[in-house]
């Protein structure tokens, strides 16, 4: 098992280096626009462009720039500075991380609980009206874009612009440590919106998986032993049926940590996704690079965690 | 020149923009009627920055401002964007400024009075006011040396000012300056600055002094930040105006008063002396929240209190404001709002032929192009190249524009187009040449719709076209702004002037002598007519608003006679505020809010 974990970790590091190289190629060798020219605005001349290029180190050779980038990253954990505010990218990302973590982890709790509950009930009553209604609703949530759901939620339930003044609306987010109660209420709507689509997918996944599992011989054996139906489902059926969910949960969380831009924008939550969006609109490459690197790191780490967790859940994996 | 960042903002709400096309065109004929402002019609009840009352505001209160977009550079030596100017205008005192309702008449700000120009327009002498102090932690009185340092640092590569050479190249030593003392700029006393020029171009140098780069910077405090690559002064800046960004005892602003992409807080500058300033500074504090969805924040502003939105509201919000909250809507027409035109290549390809350019002008349905961008509510049909609010506008034709047949019909006239096609050597009235016209436009809506409409007009004239739609910044930096690409038609270009002078409107986009061959060029049509170039060089030296207006109006007429581009939109900018806010907007700065004049009711 230890060898398996070490092997996965080494692959993770290698993958990270590949991602870094790709990022460098994307932003330094094949940029869609020259950052020095963008920075120079429209009333520019070659002297100004050259000066800007020199100031930002863009006049160095590509290997020198890559080496400098790696050195700064690994030795000083320096992700560079914003072309616009000159703020350290590392500081900007860490400043935004709590908001994104709050949104994504809270949303994940909701989508796991809701997805599992609806999936189990639907599986146990497959074909019933309740099942059809649940799966129909799930289909609606899977199809509905998060952005649209967010706007709808605000226009119905936000305390400022909603038809029913129920929950704090856009721009109400505060940090957990600043005002815990306000933090919680300000995130209820975003959590529900971010969870809706994924919960629906999980419900459909768990339903299918559980229906299949409940037909297995060992389930019949469990029933024959006289176990209660609740115990059969939760202890024996679900334990096996949940494997596909474990596989996707880690990656779903990781992906969302780097790409929750839509919900963050609608609800005006200052997270990493919105930081990335604003950087893209300004072609602020160091920030884009930093946020993409972090997003990749989340996915790589999540994959390693999932692989290791899977190895614990399925003994066949650790020997493969 | 500031980039048309509003294009990006509009692109962000593009999906809904076309819905305004119909409403925009119908709003003026609705039962609510319209009001007219110098020929530009505004929906009834909507405010116009030029008519705003600048006095009588209530003192005190906290204004909450929301904006979807972030600032770019808040260092006064770098700032070059209307949202940035909104901050520097409240925190810094440049030598001269505009009052909110004008784009032509400057007011001495840090300067004590008008500049003294002598030595045949080659020497500028300016006295600065006494009693102006820097904010904490510097606290001391501003002197002429602080303005001299502002001149020095604008050429410092670490500050990376993007425009200084365009206006200040004639200052002695400026061309070779690297941040050290500039031979032509000296403090000749505690309160006096002298600027020596190598060319008689005092007018443009003085005109550019409304920009924030002339705000004083204390060398003793700022030099250590300016030595960093890039300069970090912006994150530790001190104020000379009525407000300052919230900072700590060391003067650090970043992470305290300004959190990029998140928030900015302006508080009163405790060292500001009201008796030296023309700004009333009613508000106690301004909290700016950055980010959010334009539809949501627009509704929050219209239905909430103590709020304004500083960037362009989403199209449905403008529509809602026109219909239900007109008194909470301000539309700035002309002045600093900018323009949009179709750039056609005057130097290469088929449009080197002036008659083909005239044919395209005549065939273009400019009203339709404007409808695609929001209609009459946010645009006037552009008929020539100077704008309302800029000296020379009336002399060069006002709103109707010069009386030439290809400019007569804003909806396009194919008969006139056919006439010019024949004059260009195509007897059938259609282009029969072998060249394929390369059209490069912006891929985001509504600009892409404009590009496609122009492409369709070209095809109606018989041209074979190749339309390439790319991301906005790529359009400029890889295609339309690159001389060697020889793009024939760029339908999505636009211009915003830095200050209210006709030279700032016409010089860079249309002066062939300023074509940048090894950078990103801003003369997208490669307009290079020796007669016009010479006229521009001569007009640059003219002094006095009226005389400059007349000189540049003649150049405008020449530009129309040569049909150097197809103008279609004098832009208008919309801004919204809560019911209890008496928002004052800067006509010169695309109509953005002026915090130093805005108050709560």
Topology:
The complex is a heterodimer of chains A (320) and B (601).
Chain A (H helix, E strand, L loop, with lengths): L1 H28 L5 H5 L6 H10 L6 H15 L12 H36 L4 H15 L2 H12 L22 H34 L3 H8 L4 H13 L1 H17 L1 H6 L5 H11 L2 H29 L1 H5 L1
Chain B lengths: L4 H8 L1 H14 L6 E4 L2 E4 L18 E6 L14 H10 L4 E3 L7 E3 L7 E3 L4 E5 L16 H11 L9 H5 L16 E3 L4 E5 L5 H6 L11 H8 L16 E3 L12 E2 L3 E6 L16 E6 L3 H10 L3 E3 L5 H10 L4 E5 L5 E6 L9 H10 L2 H7 L6 E3 L23 H4 L5 H10 L12 E7 L4 H14 L3 E7 L1 H9 L8 E7 L6 H9 L19 H10 L5 H17 L3 E13 L3 E2 L16 E2 L1
Parallel strand pairs in B: 3-13, 3-14, 18-19
Antiparallel strand pairs in B: 1-2, 4-5, 6-7, 7-9, 8-9, 10-12, 11-12, 12-13, 14-21, 15-21, 16-20, 16-21, 17-21, 22-23
What are the main properties of this structure?
heterodimer; A: 320 residues; mainly alpha; MetI-like fold; 15 helices; B: 601 residues; four-stranded antiparallel sheet; globular
Describe the structure.
- The complex is a heterodimer of chains A (320) and B (601).
- With 320 residues, chain A is mainly α.
- Chain A has a domain at 96-279 and 293-313: MetI-like fold (Orthogonal Bundle), CATH 1.10.3720.
- Chain A is 76% helix and 0% strand.
- Chain A has 15 helices and no strands.
- Chain A has helices at residues 2-29, 35-39, 46-55, 62-76, 89-124, 129-143, 146-157, 180-213, 217-224, 229-241, 243-259, 261-266, 272-282, 285-313, 315-319.
- The longest helix of chain A has 36 residues, at 89-124.
- The radius of gyration of chain A is 24 Å and the shape is globular.
- The termini of chain A are close together.
- With 601 residues, chain B is of the alpha+beta class.
- Chain B is built from 18 helices and 23 strands.
- In chain B, β6 (116-118) and β7 form a beta hairpin.
- In chain B, α10 (354-363) runs antiparallel to α13 and α17 (530-539) packs antiparallel against α18.
- Chain B starts with a helix and ends with a strand.
- Mean pLDDT of chain B is 90; it is low at 1-38.
- At the A-B interface, α2, α3, α5, α7 and α12 of A face β11, α8 and α15 of B.
